[in-house]
Amino acid sequence: MPYQRIRDLREDADLTQKEIAEILQMHKTTYVRYESGEREIPLKIAVALAQYYGVSLDYLAGLSDRAKPLK
């Protein structure tokens, strides 16, 4: 999973790592490890991030460059 995408989405939303960790109800250290690529992002967290930012899982996973799914 391209960890740069979750960082870019967070920064575009003007959120700190601490703020997004609180939104996801996790420790900041855990979120930092996801964003740095130290830990794999569980599907449950990936879904929560995609829903929060309003993007597709394909975009979050780097399978598509289109943030919003086609209708």
Automatic annotation (TrEMBL):
Keywords: DNA-binding. It comes from the Bacteria. InterPro entries: Cro/C1-type_HTH (IPR001387), Lambda_DNA-bd_dom_sf (IPR010982). CDD domains: HTH_XRE. Residues 6-60 form the HTH cro/C1-type domain. One of its GO terms (molecular function) is DNA binding. Signal peptide: none annotated. This is Helix-turn-helix transcriptional regulator. It holds the Pfam family HTH_3. SUPFAM superfamilies: lambda repressor-like DNA-binding domains.
